[in-house]
Amino acid sequence: MTAFDQLMAFQRDTSALGQIAGRLGWDQETVMPRGAAGQRGQEMAAIEAVLHARKSDPRVADWLEAAEAPDEAGTAQLREIRRAYERAQKVPADLAKKLAQVTSEAQGKWAQARADEDVAAFLPVLEEVVALRREEGAALANGGDINDALVEDYEPYTTSDEIAAIFDTMRPRLVALRAAVLEQPMPKGVVGEFDEGAQMKLSRQLAKTFGYDMSKGRVDKAVHPFSSGSGSDVRITTRTSPTDPFNCFYSTIHEVGHAAYEQGIDQSFELTPLGRGVSMGVHESQSRIYENQLGRSRAFTGWLFEQMKNAFGDFGLNTADEFYAAVNRVQNGYIRTEADEVQYNLHIMLRFDLERALMRGDLQVSDIEAAWNDRFKADFGYDVDRPSNGCLQDVHWSVGLFGYFPTYSLGNVYAGCLYEALRDAVPNLDDQLAQGDTSGATGWLRENLQRHGSLYAPRDVIERASGKVPGPEALLDYIEKKFSGIYSL
């Protein structure tokens, strides 16, 4: 075997172990008994220790030194392995193991504190998570910006200052549009109660409609919807609300976007560094374009309106136009995952600024609730009513995902660019969506983006697919046009 072949064989085993760790996380969020949280933390720590040892194994350096890439994909494999190896070398093994254990335990404590509306019960473990991530960020930054080092985990080759500049461009137009929309009469919404079983049945139908391969996946329920896995085992979760079926349906479509990306990657990349989404921003571009530009379009909602009438009968909306307006209704609300396209990115900007301050030491964990509430009041104009609608609503900080939040808005920016190109490439897109046929759109995305996995750098793959350097203008133009139409601005 050549050095390249030996390195790739070693890497496939490492990736397989990573998938096992991911499956433990999926189990923890879906079916694990609550009392198993402590033991699960030890299990996660043990497997993280093995993974860290493999990622920082000195043989990897030797193989990288000797390996010769056989082709373009091989060159990209070496690039990704080298990047991961260099980062793993900077993080002490004990720190990696401790992070895995603490964040596993913190997840359960967050869920309980959220259920109890008890911020104080969560703060001690959050303090520990923040301290550990600061330590890790400092090790990775090697004298540079801690936030840049943490963002690199989720959006390679992007700095927090670059993200801040994008947000500064977006904020004024979004704030102005939000103000104009909220001055108009609000469209009516659905009324009644919606059977949970019927919601899940239609949810699974929607997953298949958007191309999710159920033979290599499954749909379960979780407190916070997510997608897990890659290759031949990609699972999603959703959640139900007896009075808000859109929460279930659009959470499902969103997570299918993530899952379809993973399922669409070239199978020859399976269990290699190229066999996963290249960044969380690109990942989010898929979930957001599935959920919003496709799933909330006038064409597709006309089809979904008929499916809901068949499933639930009368729910207070009489026409497809009323349904379209209800699906895209802009209203005051606290929850990021339920926010409309006009306000969603404002939720992200709040989190991005707070976590940058936390990592820099400008904001203390003990002050996070007050800081969140003050910023929310300033941005949205009303008070947070309870912690589960405020600083306890998201799972991310409990599991140490500092640097992750901005990728949601980067995904929206990328989706705006992709959608502009998609409409040019599939001129009869609306006709297809009106029949519940997403294959033209999902096929184009699979061919032009998803199949590449991590072959190209994040912004490069967006530019290759869309034909333009990614920027926020396409997204902002799309949002303004759509909501100006709905609200007759």
UniProtKB/TrEMBL annotation:
The active site is at E255. One of its GO terms (biological process) is proteolysis. Keywords: Carboxypeptidase, Hydrolase, Metal-binding, Metalloprotease, Protease, Zinc. Its EC number is 3.4.17.19. It catalyses: Release of a C-terminal amino acid with broad specificity, except for -Pro. GO terms for molecular function: metal ion binding; metallocarboxypeptidase activity. It comes from the Bacteria. CDD domains: M32_Taq. Zn(2+) binds at H254, H258, E284. Its cofactor is Zn(2+). The keyword DNA-binding does not apply. InterPro entries: Peptidase_M32_Taq. Pfam families: Peptidase_M32. Binds 1 zinc ion per subunit. Broad specificity carboxypetidase that releases amino acids sequentially from the C-terminus, including neutral, aromatic, polar and basic residues. Belongs to the peptidase M32 family. This is Metal-dependent carboxypeptidase. It comes from Falsiruegeria litorea R37.
